[in-house]
Design brief:
The chain has helices at residues 2-35, 44-56, 74-84, 96-109, 119-128, 135-151, 154-164, 174-182, 191-200, 204-209, 214-226, and strands at residues 63-64, 166-168, 171-172. With 233 residues, the chain is mainly alpha-helical. It has 2 domains: 1-35; 41-229, Biosynthetic peptidoglycan transglycosylase-like (Penicillin binding protein transpeptidase fold), CATH 1.10.3810. The protein has a 3-stranded mixed sheet. Helix 1 (2-35) crosses helix 6 (135-151) and helix 9 (191-200) packs across helix 11 (214-226). The radius of gyration is 20 Å and the shape is globular.
């Protein structure tokens, strides 16, 4: 009888676990569906960063202001696509060639130096997931990416991305970034300013402090040359 009881509880625990997983996917699905035509107030990553900032200063607040797709300079849009995902308008969430190149670079260097994540994957991670790197997180990121691509237009994905990504210590979104670094609006950015903001995306908190870093300047120049080829959604 004891053996049957143990198996009963194991079965119950497994059912509860998978039930929780299903409910969590439904919760994510509902949020993605809602955000097709409603703007998210904050992302999971923004919540994480605010919690960290408030550990040092309880009065800390994020700098963030949502603006529409039309209120963001096309120059910044081109710069971000050139920097982060040159095939954004062509792929369905995953750029397999970029992933392969990243794997080869990482193998050559013996450490992770490139990720190959698309804009859609980055948005999935920012909206819902913590900053902890786990195999489970990569699987969840893939599932959310598929939901985003199936339910939203490319333009909507890009609009949300530009409004929620981190651009400095407590700075989130294109409008806050433009005002923080250049005292202008996201619509008023010049080509050079747009290229530099796009260059900061991989390590924004560091570049917020090291704005004349040589690697940042080199990357800015590379992005500026590639902006003309970027295809906008």
């Amino acid at each position: 009888m004891r053996g049957h009881s143990v198996w009963f509880w194991i079965g119950w625990a497994c059912a509860a676990f998978f039930g929780f997983i299903i409910l969590y996917q439904v919760w994510i699905f509902v949020h993605v569906w809602w955000w097709v035509d409603h703007n998210p107030a904050r992302s999971a990553f923004m919540e994480d960063r605010l919690e960290i900032l408030q550990e040092k200063n309880p009065d800390a607040e994020l700098r963030h202001r949502w603006v529409s797709y039309q209120q963001i300079s096309p120059l910044l849009k081109r710069a971000v696509i050139a920097a982060e995902d040159s095939n954004f308008t062509d792929h369905e969430g995953f750029d397999w060639e970029a992933i392969q190149r990243a794997l080869e670079r990482n193998a050559k260097k013996g450490k992770v130096v490139a990720g190959g994540s698309t804009i859609s994957q980055q948005l999935a991670k920012n909206l819902f997931l913590s900053s902890k790197r786990t195999p489970w997180r990569k699987l969840e990121e893939a599932l959310i990416t598929i939901m985003l691509e199936k339910m939203m237009s490319k333009q909507r994905i890009f609009e949300i991305y530009l409004n929620v990504i981190e651009w400095g210590n407590g700075v989130f979104g294109a409008e806050a970034a433009a005002r923080h670094y250049y005292r202008t609006s996201a619509a008023g950015l010049s080509a050079g300013q747009a290229a530099r903001l796009a260059a900061m995306i991989p390590n924004p908190r560091y570049y917020d402090k090291a704005r004349n870093d040589r690697a940042l300047l080199r990357r800015t120049n590379v992005i500026a040359r590639g902006m003309r080829y970027a295809q906008l959604p």
